[in-house]
Sequence to fold (164 residues):
Amino acid sequence: MAIFKPTYALQSVLEITPQALKNLDIKALVLDLDNTLTTHDNPVPADGVLDWIANMQKHGIKLLIVSNNTAERVTPFAEMLGLHFVPNGAKPLPKGFRQAIRELRVSKKQVCAVGDQIFTDILGANLAGIRSIFVYPIEPEKSTFFKIKRAVEKPLLPKKYNRF
Fold:
C-alpha cells in the first residue's frame, strides 16, 4: 500500500549525506527521536549522531525533531543536540509535520521526514504530503506493544534499501 511506503530506505540516519539531500533539493529534515537518533528512553545520542548533525548543519541542512514523546522527554535531548523540536507530535497525523514545516520555513517539497516506524513516521509523512526516509531501528524494542507493532509492520518494510 503506497500510503505506508517510504520514499527512500536506509540502514541509519548516518547514511544520509548533505550532498544526497542537495541533489534532491531537500533543505530540511524532520527527525524522529527514539530508535532513529537514539534508543528508546535513552538520554544520549547514538554513536555518530552528534557528528552527523554537525555535518548537516555545516552544510546548511535545517533539522527539527518531531516526536510523539512529551516535552519532558524531548527537551533535554533536543537541547543537547541544539535542535528545535515539536513534542506530542501526534504522528501519524500530519499536525506535527505541518508545525515543523512552518518552523523550518521551507516548502513541503524541500523537506523530508526521517524515522524508524512505518505506522507513525512514514504514514505521517505521506499524509502530510512530504517525502520520507525510513531507517531501520537502532535496536529491537523490548515492550510487548512494540513487538506486536513491529510484527504487523514487517510485511510493509522495504525489501531492499532504496538509496538516493
Remarks:
- Strands lie at 8-10, 28-31, 62-66, 84-86, 111-115, 131-135.
- The mean pLDDT is 91.
- Residues 54 and 156 are 32 Å apart (CA to CA).
- The longest helix spans residues 71-81.
